[in-house]
Amino acid sequence: MHHRSVTPLTLLLSTTLALGACSLSTSSPSAATGTGAPGTAAEATAPPTHPRQNSSDAPDWGAGSQGQQAGEGSTLTVADVRVGNHPDEGYSRFVVEFDGQGTPGWSQPQWDVPVSTMGKGDPIEVEGERTMVIRGSGVAAVPPDGQRVSGHRQIELDNSANDDRSIDSAYIDPGFEGEFQVVLGTDSQTYRVFSLSNPTRLVVDIALD
């Protein structure tokens, strides 16, 4: 009968293979599925998250009261305006949407001052207990080709609506020599002004009394 001898090299290889099999069988579920520890492949390929653009992301009341400079080299045009009412959240919202490149700027809002259109100087009148005037910047003096351009617009809200609201009417003066103008008729002086992106917007919230 022949006896097979076991050399030290053979013993070393056997031990290495056994340990490798053990490490594979005892790996954690998170490693097997690609989830868990930071730096895994699953984390690197996860879809990006985007902040919700609603009231939970809005700044505190009073934000934007000192104004803000427009982005350098901005060539925006006023493309659309709209008013939304959010009585359950305690405010009405005015939105200016822009086409083009950059971010809008705005001056410190003024209250209850005489206001007229830029350029022609026609008087602007809005309904409401107070009048809020915001001069904006960052629009192109000459609208670039292909960008939407809104004209002067008086926005009257539906008086038959039963919902509480804090914006009674609005006027948009879309642009003159690189500036635009927003005039709101409001029932409150509690406000916030800020900008949003995708698409580029200027937002004015007026709190309900």
Tell me the layout of helices and strands.
Elements: H1 8-25, H2 29-33, H3 41-44, E1 75-86, E2 91-101, E3 105-106, E4 110-111, E5 130-137, E6 153-156, E7 167-176, E8 179-186, E9 191-196, E10 201-207
Antiparallel strand pairs: 1-2, 2-10, 3-5, 4-5, 5-8, 6-7, 7-8, 9-10
Please name the CATH architecture of the largest domain.
Answer: Sandwich
Overall body shape: globular
**What is the C-level CATH assignment of the largest domain?**
Mainly Beta
Our measurement of the CA-to-CA distance between the termini, rounded to an integer number of angstroms, reads 103 Å
Element-level helix/strand string: HHHEEEEEEEEEE
Helix fraction?
10-25%
CATH topology of the largest domain: Immunoglobulin-like
* Mean pLDDT metric: 78
Q: What share of residues are in beta strands?
A: 25-35%
β-strand number: 10
Question: C-alpha Rg, in Å?
Answer: 30 Å
Structural class: mainly beta
Salient structural properties:
single chain, 209 residues, mainly beta, Immunoglobulin-like, 2 domains, 13% helix
Report on the structure:
A hairpin with a 4-residue loop joins strand 9 (191-196) and strand 10 (201-207). The strands form two sheets. Strands 3, 4, 5, 6, 7 and 8 form a six-stranded antiparallel beta sheet that branches. Strands 1-2-10-9 form a four-stranded antiparallel beta sheet, with no helix packed on it. It has two domains: 1-49, no CATH class; 63-207, Immunoglobulin-like (Sandwich), CATH 2.60.40. The longest helix has 18 residues, at 8-25. The protein is mainly beta and 209 residues long. The protein has helices at residues 8-25, 29-33, 41-44, and strands at residues 75-86, 91-101, 105-106, 110-111, 130-137, 153-156, 167-176, 179-186, 191-196, 201-207.
